[in-house]
Predict the 3D structure of the following.
Amino acid sequence: MPELPEVETTRRGLAKLVTGKKIRRVLVRERRLRWPIPDELSQYLVGRTVRAVRRRAKYLLIDTSNGTLIIHLGMSGSIRHVAPNAPVRKHDHVDIELDDEICLRYHDPRRFGSMHWTSVSADEHFLLCSLGPEPLGPDFTPDYLYGRSRNRKIAVKNFLMDAHVVVGVGNIYASEALYLSGLSPVRAAGQVSLARYAKLVDSVQQTLRRAIKAGGTTLRDFVSGDGQPGYFGQQLFVYGKAGERCSKCASEIRVRTIGQRSSYYCPVCQR
DNA sequence: CCCGATTCCTGTAGGC
DNA sequence: TGCCTACAGGAATCGG
């Protein structure tokens, strides 16, 4: 699924392709995504020029002269650059055609993605206004995590995956980062020391940076390529490796369900 | 406020 | 070989 690295790769590809271009036509084949695509989407977009393509959390923000299109790729969404008459595949839900015969095609089998329109600052949109800091930004600090976690009884893994705490840390990266920092995924968030949170911040950033680097080589230009997710190629320490040996202590890696999600961990290294 | 459970959806993997 | 079921996951929302 598109993780932060895939979304960022998509953003870079889109920015290069559509900045400064005028939107000529919008075709919605299936409006039932995570939220219904607004009926007026075409009215909002057609005739407008793309000013910039930004990212906030896993949201793509396409700024035009009169507002912003907010796109989430959900679990299975992708945006590809195709020829205007390219054959339509199953689950090709939306086309956005721009100058120079550029056609952006939104494809999403599971329809967990979404498209919203806002005519004011996207940061004020209800989906974005209460999001936590970017994990690779200056506000994601040990002090911040420590402060937010006091008196919280929630498992530290769920805490880390809460987008109101910090954005962009999905199930895979949460398992990996907790392993790197030697923290048990089930430990209460409020019972983790400042020093441990410092280690965790470092681990999250290291994990994401490595994934972005892998995404950068595997995905190159997600918009014009096949949109193959890149995280498969990256080095995973524990995720999906139940029964295999821990690379530090050779204990057997375990899997258990925490907050309705599979969590992989080393029972010896993580306390 | 806090937290766990439920929900959306379909492709894929595993079992028999 | 083929059918059937379980599972995966982001994030809003519901219920206690």
